[in-house]
Amino acid sequence: MFDKLLRELKKLEQGVRVPISLPIDDEGYFDRQCPSEGCAANFKVLFEDWRDKVSDERVFCPICRFEATADSWNTPEQVEYITAVARNHVQGIINNAMKEDARRFNSTQKPGFISLSLSVTPGRPEIEIPVSVADVMRQTFTCEACGCRYASVGLAYFCPSCGHNSVLVTFEKTLDTVRQVMGKTSDMMRVLETVVDKDTARDSVRNILEDSLLRLVGAFQYFADHLFNQKPGTASIKQRKNVFQNLTESSALWKTLTGKGYEDLLSTADFADLERLFQKRHLIAHRNGIVDQEYITKASDTSYTVGQRLVILEANVLRLADILHTLSTELKKLP
């Protein structure tokens, strides 16, 4: 009686191809997520480059350079969507087979006092709508080596297609993106106040400002580290981990290598502000912005007392971006 259904089930046991079309954003970018548990970073790749440039055998995470095959990079929302589409496809096959078996069974029944019939009411297909993520502060990149185009909200250093290290390009992109974001904080506040209360909106913008300061220092750290170690003679110079987060130590490294440190490449006012802004970053990263005596002493900032919390303004972030642009330009000129 269920011949058609049994045949379809046997086919399903051998595997079935399910046509699935994953959505891309309005600019043609495809959401991806690093499969490494220690990273799990979200990023995007222009879909035509994912299709034409990225290999099936090897894809690189732009943030941590983890390698995996191309079928390993779906986001949780995409996995859920794929599962739902596959389930609906299989359900459709089973429902159609059962309908066909029921039709055949009913056609064999003869009229009489008792008649049997089968009816099939297919389950209602589940509708899964993938989540569309609004990328705030998204940076777009084009790999210098292979031309692959990709995007990331946070810092990204490696091309997903070939793994090329793009630290120098990332730094310039970060400066530009942070400047653009600083010009939109008032708009962000107005939009946020339409969906949350004013205090929450204010906290959200404050977090964006603080994150922008952290991103600038992080981008400069990787930029300076990469640039320094491209120079001849650096192999013999001892470096500790994360030394380029520390202005005093990293400036000394450059002076040992080239004869010039940060204080030689910047004006007195710029260098003093750079030290103060780096101290602000340190306080945010390690003390949640709560002022201690060490900060007041090292930053020469008597506008705060111990126990207060730092307030980061758009002007602070823009000032740091300008100084780092000047410093990076001068560092690239060094022999």
Structure description:
With 335 residues, the chain is an alpha+beta fold. The protein has two domains: 1-165, no CATH class; 182-333, no CATH class. The chain has eleven helices and six strands. The radius of gyration is 29 Å and the shape is globular. The chain starts with a helix and ends with a helix. Residues 109-136 have low confidence and may be disordered.
SSE sequence, one letter per element: HEEHEEHEEHHHHHHHH
- The average pLDDT value, as a whole number, equals 82
Shape: globular
Tell me which oligomeric state these chains represent: single chain
The major β-sheet equals: 4 strands, antiparallel
CA radius of gyration: 29 Å
Q: Helix amount, in percent?
A: 40-55%
Termini separation comes to 84 Å
Strand-pairing-aware structural class:
alpha+beta
Task: Describe this protein with a few key phrases.
alpha+beta; 4-stranded antiparallel beta sheet; two-stranded antiparallel ribbon; 6 strands; globular
List the helices and strands and how they pair.
Elements: H1 3-13, E1 29-33, E2 42-46, H2 47-52, E3 59-60, E4 67-68, H3 76-108, E5 139-142, E6 149-152, H4 167-182, H5 185-193, H6 198-230, H7 247-258, H8 262-265, H9 268-287, H10 293-299, H11 314-333
